[in-house]
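If it is no trouble, can you show me the amino acids of a protein and the tokens describing how it folds?
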Amino acid sequence: IENVKLELEEKRKKHSRRLMAVLGEAIAKKLQQKEAEIESMGKINCALEEKVRALCVENQIWQNLARSTEATANALKGNLEQALARVSEGRGDSEEDAGAAESCCCDGAEGGKRRKEAGREEEGESRREKGCWSACRRCGEGAPTVLLLPCRHLCLCGACSPAVDACPICKCTKSATVQVYLS
């Protein structure tokens, strides 16, 4: 009986050792998997932190651009309001302003003179007919909300702008337009 007890005890110990070894291997394997996951998550975390830093820098760039654009828009709005105030006072463009406008126009000095004369004739007719810049120079119905470049005339409504290739005031070829929103 004593031998049987010892033998059973020895079998139980062997079984316990095998069980512990199997459990140890399973735990070690699981631990390795978790360590690999932690390492992978660490790499992903670093990549995400780098992406966040890049997005913060990009966000700052966009904010600076928005501020700059807003400042430019405010300056242009102020210039436009001053020009409209001069027009409403009956002064129109002074010779200095006309010279500045000519220098940015398409044809040089002769074209500027021709545009100035054509513009004065048409402005005179238009002012008598419609009252100073209160209507589109093409259709006569819409409010002028489109600024033509390079001549800087505010003379077309949004509907007529795409159909016009040259300024109706000075006949300068249109290179671009700017939609103007007056408050």
In short: The first strand starts at residue 146 and ends at 149. The CA atoms of residues 116 and 171 lie 10 Å apart. Strands lie at 146-149, 154-156, 176-179. The chain is about 65% helix and 5% strand.
